[in-house]
């Protein structure tokens, strides 16, 4: 038979007090946030349940719905980041424009688009080949 273990959470200032009870025992702990409190409650449940199977009910203010709502809100909320600082105009060095970049500088291709070195070595030189001479006589004026 599966026993029910109850994990009760109470917020005390910035910390959370956890009480896990079941199988005739009661364990308590504290944690700095609701996510850490849930992790700590899981550890306490393992101590109580041992190798046996247990169903755990997590309660906040006597309600599993309140706990789930608070826990999921904490899990899905993005952390607060410091505001983005934009430097004043003129303090950032300008990047070279394509026109000012060296003319013979080629953009780097991704490895999947690069030719093997053996193919690169066999490529024709960049100089244009001389135009073939035609066999037709030139007109004289």
Describe it:
The structure is a single chain. A four-stranded mixed β-sheet has the order 3-2-1-4. The chain starts with a strand and ends in a 19-residue tail after the last helix. The mean pLDDT is 79. The protein contains three helices and four strands; from the N terminus they run E-E-E-H-E-H-H. The chain is of the alpha+beta class.
Features:
25% helix; single chain; 141 residues; alpha+beta; four-stranded mixed β-sheet
What is the gyration radius calculated from CA atoms? 36 Å
Question: Major sheet, described briefly?
Answer: 4 strands, mixed
Q: Overall 3D geometry?
A: elongated
Helix content: 10-25%
- Beta-strand share of residues: 15-25%
The main sheet orders its strands as: 3-2-1-4
Can you give the mean pLDDT?
79
Structural class: alpha+beta
- Number of H/I helices: 3
How many β-strands, per DSSP? 4
What is the rounded distance between the termini? 115 Å
SSE sequence, one letter per element:
EEEHEHH
Low-confidence stretches: none
Fold topology:
Layout: E1 3-12, E2 15-22, E3 25-31, H1 34-49, E4 54-60, H2 64-76, H3 117-122
Parallel strand pairs: 1-4
Antiparallel strand pairs: 1-2, 2-3
Brief characterization of the structure:
This protein has 141 residues and is an alpha+beta fold.
């Amino acid at each position: 038979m599966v026993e029910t273990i109850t994990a009760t959470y109470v917020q005390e200032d910035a910390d959370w007090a956890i009480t896990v009870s079941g199988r005739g025992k009661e364990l308590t702990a504290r944690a700095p946030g609701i996510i850490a409190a849930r992790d700590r409650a899981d550890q306490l449940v393992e101590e109580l349940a041992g190798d046996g199977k247990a169903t755990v009910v997590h309660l906040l203010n006597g309600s599993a719905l309140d706990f789930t709502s608070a826990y999921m809100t904490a899990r899905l909320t993005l952390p607060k980041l410091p505001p983005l600082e934009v430097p004043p105009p003129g303090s950032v060095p300008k990047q070279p424009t394509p026109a000012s970049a060296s003319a013979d500088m080629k953009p780097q291709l991704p490895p999947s688009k690069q030719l093997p070195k053996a193919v690169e070595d066999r490529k024709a030189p960049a100089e244009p080949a001389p135009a073939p001479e035609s066999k037709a006589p030139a007109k004289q004026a």
